[in-house]
Amino acid sequence: MLDILNIYNNIVExxxxxxxxxxxxxxGLFWVLFLLFIPMYAMLKKRRWQMITxxxxxxxxxxxxxxxxxxxxxxxxxxxxxxxxxxIIKLNSRFARKLCVTISIICSIGILCYFKYANFFMWxxxxxxxxxxxxxxxxxxxxxxxxxxxxxxxxxxxYKTRVTPTKTWLEYLFFLxxxxxxxxxxxxxxxxxxxQITQNNRATRNDIYFGFWLILLGVIKKAIIADYIAQYNDLxxxxxxxxxxxxxxMGVIGYTMQIYCDFSGYSDMAIGxxxxxxxxxxxxxxxxxxxxxxxxxWHRWHIxxxxxxxxxxxxxxxxxxxxxxxxxxxxxxTMLIGGLWHGADWKFVFWGxxxxxxxxxxxxFKPLLDxxxxxxxxxxxxxxxxxxxxxLLWVFxxxxxxxxxxxxxxxxxxxxRPDYIPVFASVRYIWIVxxxxxxxxxxxxxxxxxxxxxxxxxxxxxxxxxxxxVVVQLVIQFMSEEVTPFIYFQF
Length: 491
What we know:
The chain has about 500 residues and is mostly helical. The protein has helices at about 1-15, 30-45, 50-65, 70-90, 95-130, 145-160, 170-175, 180, 190-200, 205-240, 245-275, 295-300, 305-315, 325-340, 345-370, 375-400, 400-415, 420-425, 430-445, 445-460, 460-480. The chain is globular, with a radius of gyration of 24 Å.
């Protein structure tokens, strides 16, 4: 009897929220629950309302396992949005309609600002007035920045008649809480996703296999490559002056690849899981490190965020319709907001601001650049400049403080010490192999990936099983002692 009670208590503890162990796509618990979820989901798929209720329940439980009882905050936000969206379409007064939109946005932004920026603003105010600042004991709900942006885009699109409000609150809650994209994106747009809820299409056989392919790619990127190379990168950023300039440079390049593998790996898994369920999420990464300008980089990196910033910040500010200076200013302000969205710290603001400056500079020189012949040398120089800027700015994104960022960059330029290269190669050879794999794979043409995906989809089940077993074995071989959270969970 005692053994049964202990088993019961262990199961309850495992299924309860644990602050230090949020449920991740890369955790074993999620995949066990997902394998239990899928058969029931398949049986309920054509019973639309039962399916919606089941997915909402699973999504809210998933969020509970990630952020505890903050899932109630998500429920409250969705209810307010849904009520206001129906009020908006019934009102004739433009002022009243705008008032409803303003109320919704203020509530969404207000909640986000409290949890994410309250201590940041209070600390800066304290620096000006020299008060005795005591930080608030605030826990940031996982993924709040992502679903806040979805909430804002929905209410704005309803106001601008781009979308029709969902008939029921449950459908809107399905959209806002859809678990594949809930905690780290891609940011889902209502005009793209809501019709899919209504259509309720079943996933085809090819969709399921392609979704499985994306999940395997995501696991390789995140659980094998990103988590392994992070072990060395973390050493560099934890001790900015404890390594040579060459080692620091390797750490910076390593983090440049780590954040891509980590975030694009999550996006691949999210898109793959959704595809298996019969839903399509927008592409979030398109080989961003192939870019030959910052403008191209932001067309390829975190596409759901950059397009959101364009449509709901840049264009409302005036876009490129207000003259040259305003175009540059709007670019700068949009990226500044994008930087602040990533974190409540001046180094994130600087990171966003510098990308804004870079975009403005590229726009200013584009007429001149367009006159230069697009030779391989020009492409190489353009790519090199872009990667240097992107990589150096990632330092401010990753380092623990502004001072650490400057120390790492300074160390690269004043203490390079190339004599450490042979030693580094002999000690960190697996890290080098991992880096080579991601750099080479990033350089391959898109048609190669399409061909590999098509082969996997059409391959016999024994080949799929063999690939799956190899991937699992590699994860076990290279996994760290504990599951590493996705980088973008903190946003």
